[in-house]
Amino acid sequence: MQNFEYYAPTKVVFGKGTQKQTGELVKSCGGKKVLVHYGSKSAKKSGLLDEILESLEGAGLSWVTLGGVVPNPRLSKVYEGIELCRKEGVDFILAVGGGSVIDSAKAIGYGVAEGGDVWDFYSRKRTAVSCLPVGAVLTIAAAGSEMSNSSVITNEDGWLKRGYNNDVCRCRFAIMNPELTYTLPAYQTACGCVDIMMHTMERYFTKETHTQMTDGIGEALLRTVMHNAGILMEEPENYNARAEVMWAGSLSHNGLTGCGTEGDWACHQLEHELGGMFDVAHGAGLAAIWGSWARYVYREKPERFAQFAVNVCGAPNDFSDPEATALEGIRAMERFYHSIGMPVSLKELGVNPTEEQIREMAHKCGFMGKRTVGAFKVLKEEDMAKIYRLAR
Amino acid sequence: MQNFEYYAPTKVVFGKGTQKQTGELVKSCGGKKVLVHYGSKSAKKSGLLDEILESLEGAGLSWVTLGGVVPNPRLSKVYEGIELCRKEGVDFILAVGGGSVIDSAKAIGYGVAEGGDVWDFYSRKRTAVSCLPVGAVLTIAAAGSEMSNSSVITNEDGWLKRGYNNDVCRCRFAIMNPELTYTLPAYQTACGCVDIMMHTMERYFTKETHTQMTDGIGEALLRTVMHNAGILMEEPENYNARAEVMWAGSLSHNGLTGCGTEGDWACHQLEHELGGMFDVAHGAGLAAIWGSWARYVYREKPERFAQFAVNVCGAPNDFSDPEATALEGIRAMERFYHSIGMPVSLKELGVNPTEEQIREMAHKCGFMGKRTVGAFKVLKEEDMAKIYRLAR
């Protein structure tokens, strides 16, 4: 087991009707003037936004609103938010939405608190030491941003999608009412489940040994998401299934599933470039690339994939042949992806990159030759290109 | 699944050599004048205290020390600490030890920040809204106080042992170096493992349904502690086993294993009275009472005990007879207790209460007829007496 730090200070308020506590929670964090940040019209149409504004009003708070955050949230919207916050004297940012909205809120928070160009943090030119306090009312279980220290923003100038991790941006509170996710389409629900699972799987595939507690949590989380994702394909308004997935989504990315291990994150990096070039849904992109990544790397430590096969996928353990068990686990996971309508290849994802595009994605993913990705197996640019090719 | 709140803001710094970061961590919390609170001479003798004072000095901090905290920490020591903090202008309390020292530190923190008689909080006369910041360097894996919101203090006037739970007392940081627990005797190690397991089991035995994520974490945690407790009986200096138990100890009592369920806590309440009357080790007292509690209550929902038997104890599932499976799980857990030298009866605990003493413990446990305990099965005073009798 490696040394580790674990820090997840977000106060979670989970369950039915909890959005009514928004005003009091903002107030308890010292907020007086709130930026209510949201995405599509659905928060407005569903009445959620009204309910939240009412709650803020009830707590004696004032606010301004800024909607229109899109998936793969844009830097231009972040700039707009920073300017609005400065003009209006905002001291608290409330994100109403999923990962994109929360990530955008965190970026605005950095920008307001730190000054200068907020992109500097995402391009590694500066390190943030402060962030305006952010809270979240979660409406999509997927990104885990409500408890994570990460934020991913896309700069339209060059379509660069870059993440920045810093504890100062962690949400003060996260309100999670599973009912708010009832109306998500099946495809988005499935994408969310894959994203949640990948946040654990990126940490689970490690060469580190003696991580029994962390392994056990990760395996339980993966089994929980798989089981309930299946239910949700047939019963989108099953409260308990929505609740299991939502809670798993937060735990998957708050650090808990990586305590004592070294994360891999190659699939996320590979998918970022896919998303940047083809604007595919993040979860679907991850599903499309994972099997090819797994087959490319599993020989580094087949017994780890065998453990995954048995403890997560319920595959029988062929004790005499860990490699066979490992491969059966990869196939089982792909069958699971199919069962919830997720792709296991770029073709199924609806993407057909040319050889030139593959080379470009690999080149960008490797920061123009400046970095490798992955830890379970360290991948160079040529490895990345091979995995993209395998995934076609 | 029930609505729940989850809030565990403690920053965990886990692994070898982490005690060297003490000074910087106190400083990052704004501490300038530190009360270093500790228990027995072992922290002094082992050189840990010197190492910590050196680290404080390196960070430019000043300090006073207060040792002598005993198991079942005393109110008189808390009063002494409060007076010392006031006199010396202490602004941060560093607990170096296990649950007793951390609980005492939290009580001192309430007393300094709130004024008045600190026992008022433990006797439910007042509610605290503030607490001097507390940090911990953990030397015993057991109580989970390093991440919990609870503190248990014994008032020598009447030997009343009372707990008080409040989020404001949660540790700002917890430094956990498993090496610091190498020298714990086997008996204390085993007691700690039982205490850790019971913090999860008190939450696990619930009539609530649809708690798959929480169940999975709890079951993984229990399996992890059982496996590694066995290792530690033979290899007290096995780093990874110490690490698994230590991390499980924090997760077991920080709220994670009870999300969405209703806790029972009857065994803890029953043991508090045993501890009050006979001053037995908390973990051993819990082990001695648990089997009798379990046999007294399991018929309320045998299938929950059957799940425990199969998923935690590895018992075969007799699908046709959940009661038989449940009972086999209880027996298996008792065999496990025996395997690490823990008692499964009061006799084995070395305690032989008279009928009068049993009635007195039950009467005190029921707050002189003013409360019931338990939730899986609600226990009245007469039930408590029956369980004590069964446990003889």
UniProtKB/TrEMBL annotation, chains A, B:
Keyword Oxidoreductase included in the entry's annotation: yes
PROSITE patterns with a match to the protein in the record: ADH_IRON_2 (PS00060)
An annotated GO cellular component: cytosol
Gene3D superfamilies: 3.40.50.1970, Dehydroquinate synthase-like - alpha domain
CDD domains: BDH
Name of a matching Pfam family: Fe-ADH
Keywords attached to this entry: Oxidoreductase
Domain named Alcohol dehydrogenase iron-type/glycerol dehydrogenase GldA: residues: 9-178
GO MF annotation terms: alcohol dehydrogenase (NADP+) activity; butanol dehydrogenase (NAD+) activity; metal ion binding; methylglyoxal reductase (NADPH) (acetol producing) activity
Fe-containing alcohol dehydrogenase-like C-terminal domain ranges (all copies): 189-389
PANTHER family attached to this UniProt entry: ALCOHOL DEHYDROGENASE YQHD
Name used for this protein in its record: Iron-containing alcohol dehydrogenase
High-level lineage: Bacteria, Bacillati, Bacillota, Clostridia, Lachnospirales
